[in-house]
């Protein structure tokens, strides 16, 4: 069974940029997304993603926290493009930077469009309590704040957030 264990952080500064080993542009859209989840009509999000000329279908449990169910499957590029264009609730675009540090893989997402200005780091872990490096550029943890989840950034982009929300303050709602 697919389980993702991941922590999400804001960044304190750009000190990570010189450590990026590679970067890729990603476009993704949701077939079952935020509004259905918020209304309690969906137990998961269903996402289609395009990156590096490949397509993916992803199913992730609609729960907050460090550990969630996740399943990801490659799909034909033409299918992914069609799903994104015709059936998604909107497209979220970002550049993902990959940083390896002390054996940990950080994925740093730099969002584009209506989410420009938002940059978050995620680190996947083997267990909920696994240790991980905490470089100076790693800011406050926002794993429990749903507004930072990609599925919610489609319906309520970063450009519409208050200054307090952009600082990572507030409750776990989006």
How large is the count of helical segments? 4
pLDDT averaged over residues: 91
SSE series = EEHEEEHEEEEHH
Sheet having the most strands: 8 strands, antiparallel, barrel
Tell me the strand order in the biggest sheet: 1-5-4-3-2-6-7-8
> In percent terms, what proportion of residues is strand?
35-45%
Number of domains: 1
Task: Work out the helicity level.
Answer: 10-25%
Subunit arrangement of the protein: single chain
CATH architecture descriptor text: Beta Barrel
CATH class category name: Mainly Beta
CATH topology: Hypothetical Protein Pfu-838710-001
Question: CATH homologous superfamily?
Answer: Hypothetical Protein Pfu-838710-001
Shape: globular
SSE-based structural type: mainly beta
Ends distance: 28 Å
DSSP, total strands: 9
Uncertain spans, ≥5 residues at pLDDT below 50?
none
Indicate the radius of gyration in whole angstroms. Answer: 16 Å
Active site: 30
Domain CYTH: 2-155
Protein name: CYTH domain-containing protein
InterPro entries: CYTH-like_dom_sf, CYTH_domain, NeuTTM/CthTTM-like
């Amino acid at each position: 069974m697919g389980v993702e264990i991941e922590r999400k952080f804001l960044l304190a500064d750009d000190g990570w940029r010189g450590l990026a080993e590679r970067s890729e542009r990603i476009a993704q859209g949701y077939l079952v997304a935020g509004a259905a989840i918020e209304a309690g009509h969906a137990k998961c999000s269903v996402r289609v993603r395009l990156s590096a000329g490949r397509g993916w279908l992803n199913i992730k449990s609609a729960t907050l926290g460090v550990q969630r169910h996740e399943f990801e499957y490659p799909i034909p590029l033409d299918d992914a493009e069609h799903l994104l264009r015709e059936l998604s609730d909107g497209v979220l675009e970002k550049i993902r930077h990959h940083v390896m540090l002390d054996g940990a893989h950080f994925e740093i997402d730099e969002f584009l469009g209506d989410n420009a200005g938002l940059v978050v780091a995620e680190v996947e872990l083997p267990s909920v309590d696994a240790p991980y490096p905490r470089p100076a550029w790693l800011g406050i943890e926002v794993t429990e704040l749903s507004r930072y989840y990609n599925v919610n950034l489609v319906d309520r982009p970063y450009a519409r957030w208050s200054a307090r929300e952009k600082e990572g303050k507030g409750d776990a709602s989006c």
